[in-house]
Amino acid sequence: MSPGQEPVFPEYETETSQTSKLLRKFKETPFVPIGMAGFAAVVGYGLYRLKHRGDMKMSLHLIHMRVAAQGFVVGALTCGVLYSMCREYLFKPKE
């Protein structure tokens, strides 16, 4: 891009680092990374418990692990939607 031209998408300038973009996104939607971290935690715990599952069948253990991980992610996204709705409609400063 030549120095005299305006960028087409100013929010995606090359001068900002990936870390600052990631932090900005996390600040805008805080429950998405919480859901991702919870998913990773449930999967990690499920893999740990896989070794000590006892007489439980593998398929049943994997189904329980999948349901727990999906439940955590859906719960986090639901909380995020409710948070953004409250922030936009209830706590919005009057203009």
Structural commentary:
- By secondary structure, this protein is an all-alpha fold.
- The protein is built from 3 helices and no strands.
- The protein has a domain at 65-89.
- Helix 2 (31-50) packs antiparallel against helix 3 (58-90).
- The longest helix has 33 residues, at 58-90.
- The chain is elongated.
- The relative contact order is 0.11.
- The mean pLDDT is 80.
Sum this structure up briefly.
67% of the residues lie in helices and 0% in strands.
Describe this protein with a few key phrases:
95 residues, HIG1 domain-containing protein, mainly alpha, membrane, Hypoxia_induced_domain, elongated, 3 helices
Set down the secondary structure blueprint.
Blueprint lengths: L17 H11 L2 H20 L7 H33 L5
Shape: elongated
**What does the largest sheet look like?**
none
Round the mean pLDDT to the nearest integer and report it: 80
Tell me the number of helical segments per DSSP (H or I, 4 or more residues long): 3
Order of helices and strands: HHH
